[in-house]
Write a structure and sequence with these properties.
The chain is mostly helical. About 85% of the residues lie in helices and about 0% in strands.
């Protein structure tokens, strides 16, 4: 390992910390210039609200409920989206049938989907997860379809020549080539899924971060709104950094 490589990690960490401190400084300066804590509170009031909410347990309960919905919606969307995307990418006939539906689904407003599902199914947990899946599955399909189209046909010929069983063919040939696309779909899908879940909770669930944001909006508690948003975004950022980014680097290592 060279000296430059060994210093790259600490240097990057320091740069990120300095950038974060700069953001907090700009936030603090903007709040001071605005001189309206009710509309634009500084970092201190937001941190105090977050601390009290965490100690009381209200924020932890809301984050737990939202994470449960995010996990369920994310897994269902990835499974269904991957299956349809592989089918569309490997079969031109299937793609010609799926593509018009996909274009329409990609352009449907998320809010309209959520409202319609709630009207049809009621304000239930199943309706909430279904609404998120309907909004998220099309984007997974697009990413996986492109990966399936990019599969090297030479490897298919190799598998045919050696008469590889289907399970081994998928494990040894298809999945390694699809891994970068699966990782990209997962990473992008998580960041979109939790934002849709907040909308679903805000409209029709009795708990979760979105529900708490709705209550705080009704009382015009801007510090609380920012606190819930930042804490939950931090949790999701930690999941993406510690889990999804590592999986993506591992999936692309063979390249």
């Amino acid at each position: 390992m060279t000296r430059g490589t060994s210093l790259a990690g600490p240097s990057r960490t320091i740069s990120r910390l300095l950038s974060l401190l700069g953001l907090i400084a700009v936030w603090w300066g903007g709040a001071r210039l605005g001189q309206d804590p009710g509309r634009f509170p500084g970092p201190a009031p937001v941190a105090i609200f977050a601390w009290h909410a965490l100690v009381a347990g209200d924020m932890l309960a809301a984050i737990g409920a939202t994470l449960g919905r995010v996990a369920a919606s994310f897994m269902i969307s990835m499974l269904i989206g991957t299956a349809i995307g592989m089918l569309a990418g490997r079969s031109r006939r299937a793609d010609s049938v799926i593509d018009p539906w996909l274009v329409i689904a990609l352009n449907l407003p998320v809010l309209m989907v959520v409202v319609l599902v709630y009207i049809w199914m009621g304000l239930t947990e199943a309706a909430a997860i279904l609404a998120v899946c309907i909004a998220k599955i099309p984007t997974v399909i697009v990413t996986i379809r492109e990966g399936a189209r990019a599969l090297d046909p030479a490897f298919d010929e190799l598998a045919f020549c050696f008469a590889l069983p289907p399970a081994r063919r998928w494990r040894r040939i298809v999945l390694p080539q699809m891994a970068p696309y699966l990782a990209a779909a997962a990473r992008g899908g998580l960041s979109v899924t939790w934002k849709i879940v907040l909308i679903v909770e805000l409209i029709g669930r009795p708990d979760g971060v979105g529900f708490e944001l709705n209550l705080l909006f009704q009382t015009f508690d801007v510090a609380g709104i920012i606190a819930y948003g930042l804490v939950f975004a931090t949790v999701m950022l930690a999941l993406e950094t510690l889990v999804l980014q590592r999986l993506e680097r591992r999936a692309n290592a063979w390249r």
